[in-house]
Structure formats: structure tokens, C-alpha cells
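Weekly puzzle thread! Below is a chain. First person to post its structure in C-alpha cell form gets bragging rights.
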Amino acid sequence: MGIPELLVQYETTLIKSNLHVLPGRIMEAKKVLAAARGDFKDAESEREQEEAILMAAISAEVDPNTGKAAFSNDKARQAELIVRKKLSPEYQEVEAAVTEAEREVNSAQFELERLQDEYKSYRYVADLTARELALYSDAGNGGSEKQAY
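Winning reply:
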């Protein structure tokens, strides 16, 4: 079997192509991940702001019968915050945005790792292919010449 046939059999064109293309795809995946992390941070900030608005309303609430704070201790305020978060459409909206942003970060992270793993795999395959082709070359030359990889 000649060298051109061996190269076709070992799919060296595909291997080289992927080794050239994957670094660019990895860089794009890193950009997508960075943007997703930024969106997640923004969504968390909006959620914190909405929670602060709810907490301010709870802290400012006065019992009309006594004229004193309606929620006088931290435990009572925290319990009321939980209730108001569930009842507030605004809070539920920002909470959903945080959940979606987190899903996007995870998805982007998984894609980046998949591309990095694919790149590593192609590097291992390229190394193995080079070694196997060198063995064929050595066998064709009677084993007397050493091939550099």
C-alpha cells in the first residue's frame, strides 16, 4: 500500500483539518461562556435588587393597631421575605432570569469542555497516526532508517 492510500486510510486530512479548526471553535466557546457569565452576574444583581426592595417594604411596614414595626425581629422579616418572594411577580421574573442565565452558563461550560476534549483527542490520534505511519515507513525501508515525527 502506497503513502497516499495510507493517508486516506488514516484520515489524516480530517485529523489535520480538525486540529486547525478546533482552536478557533474553542476561542468562540470561551467568548460565549464569558458572555453567559456576565448575563448571569447581571441577573443575580437584578434579583438582589428586587429582594432589597421587598425587604425595604417589609422593614418599613407598620402595624396600624400599635404603630410599631409589623415585623419586629429578623426571623419574622426573613419569613415574610420568603412569602413575598413567592407572591411577587417581579421577583419571580428575575428569579426565572437567574435560573435561565445559570442554565446558559452551564451549557456554555459543557460545550467548551467538549471542544477541549475533542481537540485533545485529535492530538492523541494525530500522534498515534504519525507513529503508526512511521512504523510502516520503517518496514518499507527494511527498518534501517529512522523517521522523525
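Puzzle host: Confirmed. Bonus trivia for everyone else. The radius of gyration is 30 Å.
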